[in-house]
Design a protein that fits this description.
Strand order of the largest sheet: 2-1-3-4-5-10
Strand content: 15-25%
Shape: globular
Structural class: alpha/beta
CATH topology: Rossmann fold
Distance between the termini: 33 Å
Oligomer: single chain
Helix content: 40-55%
Number of strands: 12
Number of domains: 1
Largest sheet: 6 strands, parallel
CATH superfamily: NAD(P)-binding Rossmann-like Domain
CATH architecture: 3-Layer(aba) Sandwich
Bound molecules: NADP nicotinamide-adenine-dinucleotide phosphate
CATH class: Alpha Beta
């Protein structure tokens, strides 16, 4: 039975992995900051050497983009050094290492989807700290998967839930029409991770649901699926609700997956419909 250590197990993706993984096929070690702080190198090394997982999945992160700007030291401590610590132990025990990363490693100034080979020039502290984490993973492990995703929604606060909550108190909501991305279901991302970890096809992957939209179109689709008649107005980011410093054009091209034709994500609208239905059930 393969042993998998999921860090950040209480987060959106950590929970989704636990929901979709076959618990008969894998032995799971879950940890989050209360059990094991990934910034503590001694604790990370000790846990890894005692439990000897075959695969380490790093879903842990300081993911609040605005908070990262205010507290860059914590951002780098968690997103860069935390990834480094897990990579060190992965390298020492020969485990495969899965590092979650983000479209925020790009500056968002492109007008076409970013491929894995495009040069990363992050603008935000969050993006810079995540890129530093990627670089540590490359430095300390050879058996790694770096998985960049975008606009992920799962079982914790995210754009879908925040929009629905806001619509309960506001009659008019302004949503950014100048930010583009690919809404991606945490469950779909988790399914992809479970597929890729069984291969030896190491490297960097862009992994998002298919298709893209503006935040405004995303909100309109959430409202349609939830039969919510709140009035939604298209606005520039600076005047919109539910925005933070994000790349304007955050669309990732799942290029490596497409050239090998090995894995196809569902369309973002289909995945969102499944998510909304599960939320309502
Ligand atoms: N959400 C997105 O839109 C998105 C998009 C692209 C990539 N990603 C990446 O995907 C990964 C998972 O995202 P997510 O949405 O699941 O994030 P999330 O919901 O914020 O979960 C992150 C988890 O990490 C925990 N954590 C924070 N500091 C830690 C530490 N020092 N040691 C151990 N655990 C710690 C958090 O605990 P607390 O909640 O107690 O702080 C939380 O449970 C992250 O690497 C993120 O950068 C996310």
């Amino acid at each position: 039975m393969l042993k998998v250590w999921i860090n950040g197990a209480g987060g959106q993706l950590g929970q989704a992995l636990n929901d979709v993984i076959d618990h008969m096929e894998f032995e799971i070690f879950n940890s989050d900051v209360n059990e094991l702080d990934i910034t503590n190198v001694d604790d990370v090394l000790s846990f890894g050497k005692i439990n000897r997982p075959d695969i380490i999945i790093n879903c842990a992160g300081f993911t609040d983009v605005d908070a990262c700007e205010k507290d860059p030291k914590t951002a780098y401590r968690v997103n860069a050094l935390g990834a480094r610590n897990l990579s060190i132990v992965a390298g020492q025990i020969g485990a495969k290492m899965v590092q979650l990363s983000t479209d925020d490693v790009f500056d968002g100034k492109s007008d076409s989807p970013y491929k894995e080979f495009d040069f990363a020039t992050p603008c935000s502290v969050y993006g810079k700290s995540k890129l530093a984490g990627e670089n540590y993973v490359k430095e300390f492990t050879s058996k790694h998967f770096i998985i960049r995703s975008n606009w992920v929604y799962g079982k914790r606060a995210n754009f879908v839930r925040d929009f629905i909550k806001l619509s309960q108190t506001q009659k008019l909501i302004s949503i950014a029409s100048d930010q583009y991305g690919s809404p991606t279901s945490a469950n779909e991302l988790a399914k992809f991770i479970l597929y890729i970890i069984e291969t030896n096809e190491y490297g960097t992957y862009h992994a998002t649901c298919t298709g893209s939209c503006s935040r405004y179109a995303f909100a309109k689709e959430i409202a349609r699926l939830t039969n919510n008649d709140v009035h939604i107005e298209a606005a520039p980011s600076a005047e919109a609700h539910l925005t933070s410093i994000r790349p304007a054009y955050a669309v990732l091209d799942n290029f490596i997956l497409s050239i090998d034709d090995v894995y196809t994500f569902p369309d973002w609208k289909d995945a969102l419909a499944t998510y909304v239905k599960e939320m309502e059930d």
